[in-house]
Specification:
Keywords: Decarboxylase, Lyase, NAD, Signal. InterPro entries: Epimerase_deHydtase, NAD(P)-bd_dom_sf, UXS-like. This is UDP-glucuronic acid decarboxylase 1. It holds the Pfam family Epimerase. It is built from 15 helices and 13 strands. By secondary structure, the chain is of the alpha/beta class. It has two domains: about 60 residues; about 350 residues, NAD(P)-binding Rossmann-like Domain (Rossmann fold, 3-Layer(aba) Sandwich), CATH 3.40.50. The strands form four sheets. Strands 3-2-1-4-5-6-11 form a seven-stranded parallel sheet, sandwiched between helices. Strands 7-10 form a two-stranded parallel ribbon. A two-stranded parallel ribbon has the order 8-13. Strand 5, helix 8 and strand 6 form a beta-alpha-beta unit. The longest helix is centred in the N-terminal third of the chain and has 31 residues. The radius of gyration is 32 Å and the shape is elongated. The protein starts with a helix and ends in a 29-residue tail after the last helix.
């Protein structure tokens, strides 16, 4: 019986084996005889070429190796094998792309004892984003908080994903709980069109927002720098303006929402310093005023460089810099060739380049001096002079039109920077002409953009390279 059973088992096994061998042989013959059509071959070649180019032009060596494997498509004998290989390579490329780290500027390395966690409110704005670049390049951990009212994510997008960088969409009018070593409180609209657009919001940002930042500094033992303004001096009766001058401000004028709330923010800072022992620094940035349209055209309002928000008034004037695009109506082009000066044009301002301001802010933050410090350029010139400089630089056939003066517009503005020089060893270094030239170049490129991909990129590694050892006052 056992012998019969064993024979049956062997017979069944041999039958199954023979059947499987027959199936495999027939399938192999069927597949080998199936030849792809010309269209199918073209499709395979096109996909292989596509991934080959990705490996050579876009992706690093790891992906290039995968693309090299695609070239083996000539060895594929059947369409099924080709499609399976393409699908496999597509998945492999996706996996490799996820593993490829984003390229960032090379930053300095700081040890744990030297590296600081720095919070910058308004860090996606004009001054804030340049400060972010400088601190990131130095090797610190930077946390940007911005509600994007006047700031733009684009200003700091090149740092998103970096291990030392964090971006938080938040309005400082609401409390913020975070652990930091230093705070730069730059959050506030700074130009009249912006802060007059919502005066109550401006006041809340500079008062309630400042209270929240001072409260945060108290809780975590951080040092906080308050970005104040020359507007605390109002329309000054003292010239040049020193930090000891109390100012001449209209408390109910159109600019009062900004002027007076900044004065309150200073009062709050020193009240927290006296009552709660919070380490405070106050920088009075000279000058933070949007002037006539022709002056704002170059971005020197108040602190020039790229990234300044091109307001409607700015665009209406800066149009003389951009070549007329095909299809633009003649009348529309002509409207951009009238440059307005509000008032006589004899009012004066003093402008600094943003890299100088960033230097001053960092030096003040890391200094033990706690009284207010003017950070500005004492090189004073009239609005008419600035208009002439910019008009000469950008060219065009524009002409200047004088309009009624703005209410409470300061007639003279020149900082006394003796304190900054003596205490911080700071003074502006970038010549006016050089700064305006860089700014005009930025806006010219910005105006020539016709699609999102034509990015007007900024290299953080270039920050501060405009510095010179001598300060030029030559203008005309």
């Amino acid at each position: 019986m056992k012998t019969v059973r064993n024979m049956k088992r062997w017979f069944t096994s041999l039958t199954l084996l023979a059947f499987l061998l027959a199936v495999i042989c027939n399938w192999s013959h069927l597949v080998s005889s199936k030849k792809p059509s010309d269209e199918e071959v073209a499709f395979v070649n096109d996909r292989a070429q596509h991934y080959s180019e990705m490996g050579q032009e876009k992706l690093p060596s790891a992906v290039a190796a995968a693309a090299a494997a695609v070239k083996e498509h000539q060895e594929v004998k059947t369409l099924d094998e080709a499609l399976l290989k393409i699908e496999s390579l597509e998945q492999r490329l996706k996996e490799i792309e996820y593993r490829i780290p984003k390229k960032y500027p090379e930053v300095n390395f700081l040890t744990y004892k030297d590296r600081k966690r720095v919070l910058i409110t308004g860090g996606a704005g004009f001054v804030g984003s340049h400060l972010v670049d400088r601190l990131m390049m130095e090797g610190h951990e930077v946390i940007v908080v911005d509600n994007f009212f006047t700031g733009r994510k684009r200003n700091v997008e090149h740092w998103i994903g970096h291990e030392n960088f964090e971006l938080i969409h938040h309005d400082i009018v609401n409390p913020l709980f975070i652990e930091v070593d230093q705070i730069y409180n730059l959050a506030s609209p700074a130009s009249p069109p912006h802060y007059m657009h919502n005066p109550v919001k401006t006041i809340k940002t500079n008062t309630v927002g400042t209270i929240n930042m001072l409260g945060l500094a108290k809780r975590v033992g951080a040092r906080v720098l308050i970005a104040s303004t020359s507007e605390v001096y109002g329309d000054p009766e003292v010239h040049p303006q020193t930090e000891s001058y109390w100012g001449h401000v209209n408390p109910i004028g159109p600019r009062a929402c900004y002027d007076e709330s900044k004065r309150v923010s200073e009062t709050l800072a020193y009240s927290y310093g006296k009552q709660e022992n919070v380490a405070v620094r106050v920088a009075r940035i000279l000058t933070r005023t949007v002037l006539v349209c022709i002056a704002t055209m170059a971005g020197w309002c108040p602190t020039s460089s790229s990234r300044h928000s091109p307001a409607k008034t700015l665009l209406s004037v800066i149009g003389i810099m951009a070549p007329k695009r095909p299809g633009t109506p003649t009348g529309a082009s002509e409207k951009k060739r009238k440059n307005n000066i509000y008032g006589s044009g004899k009012q004066t301002r003093s402008f600094q380049y943003v890299s100088d301001l960033v230097d001053g802010l960092i030096k003040l933050q890391n200094n033990n001096y706690s009284l207010p410090v003017n950070l500005g350029n004492p090189d004073e010139h009239t609005i008419e002079e600035f208009a002439s400089i910019i008009h000469t630089m950008v060219g065009g056939k524009s002409h200047i039109i004088h309009k009624d003066a703005m209410e409470d517009d300061p007639q003279r503005r020149k900082p006394d920077i003796t304190r900054a020089n003596n205490i911080l060893g700071w003074q502006p270094l970038v010549p006016l002409q050089q700064g305006i030239k860089k700014t005009v170049e930025y806006f010219r490129r910005e105006l020539m953009r016709s699609k999102h991909s034509e990015r007007n990129l900024h290299d953080p590694a270039e920050a501060g390279k405009l510095k010179t050892t001598t300060h030029s006052t030559s203008l005309l």
